[in-house]
Amino acid sequence: MDPNQKIVDAAIEQLRSRWPGARDSVAAAALMLEGGDILTSVSFDNYNAAATLCAETGAVAQAYTLGKAVIASACVTAGTAEGTYQVLAPCGICQERLAIWGPEVLAAVPGSAGGSAWEMRTLRELNPFYWATSFTPNGQWPSVAEHGE
Ligand SMILES: [Zn+2]
After folding, report:
1. Which pLDDT does position 22 carry in this prediction?
2. Of 10, 23, 34, 115, whose CB neighbour count within 10 A is largest?
3. Model confidence at 149, in pLDDT bands (50, 70, 90)?
4. CATH code, domain carrying 95
5. Which helix (H) or strand (E) holds 98?
6. What does the H/E/C string look like for 56-90?
7. pLDDT band at 39 (very low <50, low <70, confident <90, very high)
8. In sequence order, what are the beta bridge partners of 122?
9. If phi over 0 gives left and psi between -120 and 50 gives alpha, with beta otherwise, what is residue 8?
10. Which domain of life is it from (predicted)?
11. Which residues constitute the domain of residue 109?
12. Centre of ligand 1 from the C-alpha of residue 33, in Å
């Protein structure tokens, strides 16, 4: 199976498992690590919107805790019709979270065909003028170590 399809399927399965029959407003994410393992997590909603967390956050923190690089990411939300799902592009903050693993990390984004179609794009494609390159020697994408400095 296409590894990218595995990631999207894992996110859908996580969403189904956490919120069976959900429609809209909740999300789940899956990250593929170097070596092929997949981590999943869900959006954390709260009455105080400032306390909410994107679906990717839990898996990003877990990958970092494990010291493993993320190579690809997918986030899905339930569609308005039962049993349908839609890929969500990572928000700007999640793109920043993923950026620690470099510009070649793949992120699922809605496909140009619309509906439930999706495709993968690198972070470099999503951020052709990544701001942090202004602060590194030679303008390269910051390394994991440089992100942490
Ligand atoms: Zn986000």
Report:
1. 81
2. 10
3. low
4. 3.40.140.10
5. helix 92-99
6. HHHHHHHHHHHCCCEEEEEEEEECCCCCCEEEECC
7. very high
8. 106
9. alpha
10. Bacteria
11. 3-148
12. 18
